[in-house]
Amino acid sequence: MHPEPAPADRERDEDPASGAPEPVEDEVEAWEPVVTRPDPMSAADLQALLDAVTDDDEPWWLQEGDPDPDDPPPPEDYDLREIAAECRQVAQDQARATADAARLGTTGALAAIAAARRGPGQPGSAQVFPGEYPGRAAQFASGMLFDVMPGRSELATFADEAAGEQDSFDGASDDEVLGILCAWDRVEAHAAARKCAAVAQLIRRRPASGYPPKGPAKMPAAWDEFTATELGTVLAQSRWAADNMLGLAHDLEVKLPGTKAAFLNGIITQEKAEIIAHAVAVLDPAEARATEALVLGRAGRLTPKCRHDHRLKQHPRWKVEQLPGGTFRWTTPSGRQYLTEPTRYPI
Prior knowledge:
The protein has 347 residues and is mainly α. Among the domains are: 99-184, no CATH class; 189-299, no CATH class. 43% of the residues lie in helices and 3% in strands. It has helices at residues 43-52, 80-103, 108-114, 153-163, 174-205, 227-235, 239-254, 257-264, 270-279, 285-299, 307-313; strands at residues 319-322, 328-331, 337-340. It has a 3-stranded antiparallel β-sheet with strand order 1-2-3, with no helix packed on it. Helix 5 (174-205) crosses helix 7 (239-254) and helix 8 packs parallel to helix 10 (285-299).
């Protein structure tokens, strides 16, 4: 027996059960309630949900996005300073690992850089790798302070200290050892340039008769014939070697101020300075400086006997002819001609 539906115009304060008849005692089992709104879940859906939930599953009453009571406390319960410190440490560890790998030469990037000339303004020192450099040789790593320092006596002191006791190089990476090596190369060039400066001063004090010092460099055009013997004696060198030293010192002062500066800073070695001086041997000072400007910017990173002397010979305004006996006749852009003989080595 079903109760009759509630009247639509029933007052709000009216008892909803007042109109329902009292159930008969022997008909209770057959009575069902009236559903006045749709069931949100069918019996089949409910059974499927119950079948899918096991003891190991997330409780079915937790909706997506709700916190799990077994989860750790939310971030606001943590020490934010501790979290920030841990993040910084992770970042530093990653940077240090990258830097260590680079400094040990294990990356392609450093391999390309390591093959380039090191020093001030050179491509091999153009990049600094991130990370910590705790050793005594730290400032000689790629791009660091002493890696780009010109050749000076102070640099020699720093390189000596970085090498450690008995040149053990304890704690120095491969990159730092290469930086120290290149620093000594610049110091060596600087010492050779200072030596040439002292030879130039000797020339000023030994002018040939009729050739007084003159010009901005205050140099004589020629030196006394016994100067080479004097220089060779005090240095225990041959006269030929002393003559070459005198010629280089003279050219650096009179013809090649840019080469002299690069030599003094260790950008170019004595060998490269000699190559440049030899290439402009037949030129006057103005022509020599113009030629010097063509090669000096890249001379520091070029290997000796490179293309700069070949380019000079192939210049459209220059002419060179090879004569018997290895002698060359040069014709300058102004039309002057000079003869150069092959280098003769002492036996």
